[in-house]
Write a structure and sequence with these properties.
α6 runs antiparallel to α11 and α7 (about 140-155) packs antiparallel against α8. The protein has helices spanning about 5-20, 25-35, 40-60, 65, 70-95, 95-130, 140-155, 160-175, 180-205, 210-230, 235-255. The chain is globular. The protein is built from eleven helices and no strands. The protein is mainly alpha-helical and about 260 residues long. It has one domain.
Length: about 260
Amino acid sequence: MTTTQMVLIALAGAAAGMMNAAVGSGSLITFPTLLAFGFPPVLANVSNNIGLVPGGIASVWGYRRELRDQRRRLLVMGSMSLLGGATGAVLLLVLPSTTFRAVVPALLALAVLMVILQPMIQRGLARRRERAHYVAGRDVGPGAMVATGLAGIYGGYFGGAQGILLVGALGTLMAETLQRLNALKNGLVTCVNTVAAVAFLVIAPTQIDWRIAALIAVGSALGGLLGAKVGRRLPQPVLRAFIVTVGLIAIVSLLRS
């Protein structure tokens, strides 16, 4: 790995940490970056997942005020995230790498589509809250638990845009503000990434490139703190366009490999 590649991976990690805290989809920056440098897809996905854990912890700390009265909710839903994340991680390691190569372009396409549709989803959620006479802190229902578990499986297998999927799904099932949903999303995604990282460490340590994981970890931690502070001030249309562009490049790269 050259010095230039190391710097670019660390910068990609910082951008991913910031985006994950603010809107999600940070893996759509780091994962394609690693692919562009020639790292195998499974190794890139596993190392990226481990590297993004510190960024998730930093984003949770940054949103601690919004999470203060959601601790019970985070514990209950976090159990589904842990279960789903472990399941997804095992699937990644058990299924052949050819399956990953075949499935990831479709998952990336889904993630990119969710990013494109995010403004429409947010407007729909706002209208739904108005009609439902929004009440903060409503109890978590079975639908939200199932959605959290499924998103966890997706995140454990491939983490790109799992935050977008969570916000979209939970926003249709729970009466909450987007700001509080985003804080909850950061906590749940961190649960998924953490349990998946533990599974990778135990089951497949040979699939981890610690240089990649360390570079992304440092960058994502700094980016997570910054993203939590300025997330609602970021130019969302520009970020969305950038994420979509990177995601499409990654799809083309995987299909041609």
